[in-house]
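Memo subject: From amino acid sequence to discrete backbone structure tokens
Keywords: amino acid chain, backbone geometry, structure tokens, three-dimensional fold.
Body of memo: The sequence and its backbone structure tokens, given next.
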Amino acid sequence: MGLKQNLHKLKEKYKGTKMAPAFNAIHTFLYLPNETTHGGTHIKAADDLKRTMNIVIMALVPCLLFGMFNAGYQHNAAVNGFTEGMSFFSGDFWNMDNFLIGFVKILPLVIVSYVVGLVVEFIFAVIKGHEVEEGYLVTGMLVPLIVPIDLPLWMLTIAVIFGVVIGKEVFGGTGMNILNPALTIRAFLFFAYPTWMSGDKVWVADARELTGTADAISGETILGSLAQGKEVAYSTWDMFFGFIPGSVGETSTLLILLGALFLIFTKIGSWRIMLSAVVGALVMGFIFNQVVGFGWIGSGSKFYDLMSLDFWKHLLVGGFAFGAVYMATDPVSASQTNKGKWIYGFFIGFISIMIRVFNPAYPEGVMLAILLMNVFAPTIDHYVVQGNVKKRLKRAKVKTA
């Protein structure tokens, strides 16, 4: 008897019990449901939750694979010196040694993220007696891509439990959460274990087991260097292609851009939020450039280097591009109205660059900006709807007059 038949028998055996959601989840994850509807009128559409989650994961896979190569490359570059003239098509970058180092360091992050998160989901499904939802499929992939490569697995475990329970389940589960769960997990890590989430020792794998070195390899991000008034050793093309230190999946603006186009083409991601976030970031960056240009901030200021960074380069460094494409567009925690999406996205971009410049202890702002706007998204939509209601009432009065 095959696995499908055994799972179906277990579903029938435990039907109506607390364990039913667990067996239903395993069965529907591996196979199509046996049940079919009969009679009546039904709406047929392809935009179900599982399809949405799978498409987002497909858009994230290139970032994951590139992150593995880049993790190994950054390690080898820190040990042996950077390779001059590196290009996206360079064999020195795409060699298996780079990939294996990144694979060994990143795969455990992915496994822990999924196993711990799904176990918590299963436990809550059994306790509450509802079906296991597919919402964590994307969160489980996002989390390893937005954390430093050497983050201890026990820290990630605690953070995932906190993020799933406090960030989602207490609100009622998938579709009911106020904050983006992946960013809730990252925020917990940032505030609970700040030394593991910032500084110049966490972004490049030290791989002590592989090299035998006693000290972590230094690999400061571009934003970290600018915040400390240091010169940046990376070209614009390095930033665009992703040959820079950073969180696992956030370095390659090129692949993030391709992922954005894929999500827009499949109508999963909101182009309004993405575009307005970019506009907001460019506006804030341009304002800072003008402040420096008029001499209102001198070169002796600790904010000078980040303020003087060309406004459009803010899109290429840090986690802004990744956050704007994969986090800000979360359909649950983002604004739902079209006008609200423009406002919501603009302020994410605007506030991200503001926090990035004025927070020298942690020169990045997209995480906090998105979480802040998650909280205000319902308020934005409320006033947009009320504004539409007032317009229609005015039209109705004019017609009846």
